[in-house]
Queue: 2 jobs
Job 1
Amino acid sequence: MTAALSVLSPTAAVLEGLPLAIDRDEVLRFQGYQKNVDHPGPPVLAIFEEALALGLELMAPRVVYRTVAVTGGAPDRIDAGGERLQIPQIARLWGAVEAVGAGICTVGEAIEERVRRLFDARELPLAVMLDSVGSAAVESLAEHANDLLCQAGLRAGTKVTNRISPGYAGWDTAEQAALFRLCPGDPIGVRLNEACFMTPGKSISWLVGIGPGARVDHYFTQCRRCWMRDCAYRRTPAATTVRQPGDGVW
Ligand code: SF4
């Protein structure tokens, strides 16, 4: 298992077997429950526990990551690695960045395969809940990687922004292809088709900005789910964690 990540790794770095925690509220949010508003009853919570146990058994978290120097840009554009990424308001959101970190993460195919089999067997509540567990797991994984990069950035004397993904906040989904050229998904078995759909489906691709002048927390407070208990740079108390507890850091 690898748990360290160099924020300035110019060659593709792969992390596997990260000790990932899955947030119950996040799973239930995918089920349509609003935190502190909707209160699922015991039958739903029992299905959640069953799906969580299955998900933890089946998931295989993997991350691939690579840093590329920024060569130019504009208010809505970043140039890096021969790509011109058109991202609305990125200069304002990120401030001055010297490099971008391109990453792809996945929890693998096994959860989706089991969901398909459960649907075939008409075990619909468990199928739908397990699908939500998979979605929450890959979101946790992306945040886990973002936290690792923040920690690595602090060690390297630089800053790392929140991640952004094609298809969100006005960034065209079609630029997924450019992101994959910056950081191919092959080392972790993630493929991109012509419609820019990733396989396995429980995968996320993302980009972060890196540099001493980078603005952090433009999207959410990164420390909110980071497990670094004694971090001198913590900006807000941790509400929960995306790392399994019990290894002494949380
Ligand atoms: S606590 Fe906050 S500043 Fe410290 S490593 Fe985690 S995300 Fe970064």
Job 2
Amino acid sequence: MLTNDDISAAFKLTASLMDLHGENPFKAKSFSSAVYQIEKIETNLAEKPKNELISLGISDGMASKIIEFAQKGTFADLQQLLDKTPKGVLEMMSVKGLGGKKVKALWDELKIESIYELLEACNAGKVAQIKGFGEKTQEAIIKEISFRTANVDKMHYADTEEIAFLLESVLKNIQVVESVSLSGQFRRRMEIIDELQLVIATKNFDAIFQFLNGYEKLIPNPKMSNPFAWRGFWKNEDNMPSLKIEVKLTQPQSFVNQVFANSAAESHLTRNHSGKNLLQILKTQKFQSEQEIYHSANLPYLVPEIRENLFEFDLTEEPKLIEMSDLRGSLHNHSTYSDGKNTLLQMANACIEMKLEYFGICDHSQTAFYANGLTEERVLKQHAEIEQLNKQLAPFKILKGIESDILNDGRLDYPDEILKTFDFVVASVHSNLRMDLEKATTRLLKAIENPYTTILGHPTGRLLLRREGYPLDFPKIIDACVANNVVIEINANPWRLDLDWRWIHYAISKGAMLSINPDAHEIAGLKDMYYGVLTARKGGAVKANILNTMSLQEIEIFLIKFDKL
Ligand SMILES: [Zn+2]
Ligand SMILES: [Zn+2]
């Protein structure tokens, strides 16, 4: 269904496109002011008749457009503008800081019609010379486009799962295939996948090549293939090549060796163990299982996700890594009180269905006005509702939390009298994300030292493939969390996975407590805890390292014990 955000976005785009095509500025302005109106309205506009829209302060003309949009999925003004805008020019408007007027200048003066041409022109120093641009803007554009194009065929782990399991099952069903295994980055649960790799055991390579070349969802890349490796791409919805695919073929007796060699990081394979590395051991015989490979190197069995040459060779026995079934509750979630899609009760019921014992609500705080953050008054209203629901849902419990914004100077954005009414506080940065290492670290340290902070939320603010996180002095931040009894979040949203797994082992070794938090904005988001579990496993976390493996009773004691006031 059409949301108010969809309407705002479409109106903003219409205004920008009018600027781009040099149309009447008053007409463009009427769309911008409608956006301003819409953002103040909380009820869904798409369901309302015209007279009600007008009574909410929307003009007659704009009300008709909302109705047209709700019925047809578009409206004439926008559609006409889109039809006469080249795709590349439209894409340029998605670059941060480039609105309709700036893109018009680039298009008119430099005849730039795509992101690639824009990058070239920036690199040649031409953009800085256009009125209203300058060196700084030019540099910011280069940085953003380079970051985007470097990630062009990469995918979030969560988005590759469906492709991976489909391909695996399709290949398993081919008669001449004896075994199939996913390998490479996917098997190691890397947060970003740039190539999906599989290994097949078969005696009939030709038949497999024929199948892969003809399979409707694949696009072959014969130039990059060889008799032992089929390479190509997955076909996306537009029938264009997207994710890179590699299928290695091997004789059945070499299958285990081949899968193993293709699943671990290079440095894991080449690390020396009393005179021999795992690659050399692979050459001595054909193994029946990966356990045997490790045992012949006098090592405990190491699961694929930790084969990174990070900490795994210090282990003296196979670790019992955290599992989804160890989780007993979910902390850090949103509801319709701020920018979530489901009510408190709906979210709580979904947790009950998942057999969890508690649900931590952490709606946005008052500074996050763009996310409908809670004023002090609304905090108290929510608390009253929680108390009511807790009577109804017992023994299940909703814990009163908040995702409090960390302000520029590291303060939290409520006074102490309000902060002390919560069961726990997740402190997160949502604004001014471009601080340098020193400033960003100092800002977080201040928040960590705040006695009301229970959990440090998404520590770097990164959005994988979209936005780099701010730089941090990780050892300093982690040490401060330990010293102040602050739990570190593993934000389980597949776009974040923040704290990064590369720092999890360090955190654990210093005695830090971690929490796997889905940051769910709707019921479906609660399932993201699974990706947090994968991240925690990759960092070597066991059940005892994770806060939300505690039972309700244990976590209530924990929250009282660490209530330092
Ligand atoms: Zn957040
Ligand atoms: Zn959040």
